[in-house]
Amino acid sequence: IQMTQSPSSLSASVGDRVTITCRASQGISNFLAWFQQKPGKAPKSLIYSASTLQTGVPSKFSGSGSGTEFTLTISSLQPDDFAIYYCQQYYTYPITFGQGTRLEIK
Amino acid sequence: VQLVESGGGVVQPGGSLRLSCEASEFTFSSYGMHWVRQAPGKGLDWVAFIRFDGSDKFYADSVKGRFTISRDNSKNTLYLQMNSLRAEDTAVYYCAKTYGSGSRIDYWGQGTLVTVSS
Description:
Structural class of chain B: mainly beta
Low-confidence stretches of chain B: none
Mean pLDDT of chain A: 97
Number of strands of chain A: 11
Oligomer: heterodimer
Strand content of chain B: over 45%
Largest interface: A-B, 23 and 23 residues
Mean pLDDT of chain B: 97
Order of helices and strands of chain B: EEEEEEEEEEE
Order of helices and strands of chain A: EEEEEEEEEEE
Strand content of chain A: over 45%
Number of helices of chain B: 0
Structural class of chain A: mainly beta
Low-confidence stretches of chain A: none
Helix content of chain A: under 10%
Distance between the termini of chain B: 37 Å
Number of helices of chain A: 0
Helix content of chain B: under 10%
C-alpha cells in the first residue's frame, strides 16, 4: 500500500493552524498512525487509529479520516512543533510510511 | 519504556552485522517489535516485525532473504541479523515497540547507525 502525503513541505507562522493530508492507495480502515520527528532524534508517536492521541500528546494535535484519506491538524503552532511529520499504515504488511511533510517556520 | 539499540558500525559491501535492541521498563515478552530504518536525509522505511513470541515474522521486500529478525525474551533483547549488506542499507536503524498484540508502534529507540562502504 502506497502512502502519499501532501504537501511535502509547508511554511507557517507561530500561532497558525495547519493541516497535512495522507492518502492511501487502497482502503486501510482506520489503521493509520502519525509520527513527529525532529532533527537528529527518533520519531515520536502522536496519533493512532487515525484519530486517537497517544498518551501525553497535547490536544492541539488532531487526526481524522478513514478508508483512504486522512488528515493531521496542528493548531496554534509553537516553535517546538516545527518538525517532519510522517503518516504510516499498519493495516497490512509490508507496513508503509508516507514520504514525510516538513513543517518550517515562515 | 526503554529501548537501546547497539551493534551499528561501518561494514564493507557484502558483509554482515547484527544489531541488538535491549528493552527495559516493560514486559518485553508480551509485545511485538519492529525494526525501522532511515537513510541519511531520507524518510522512514519499515524493515521487519516479529510477534511477541516469535511465532510470526514479516519483512520488507528489500531485505527479505538477507535480514533476519529474532528475539530472546529471556534476555529482553531484539535482534536484526543483516547479511549481504549493500550501500543502500546505510541508515539509522530504530527498534520500536508495538502496543498490545497488534502492529502499531507506540515507542521508539534512539537508533544505531549502519554504514555500508568500502
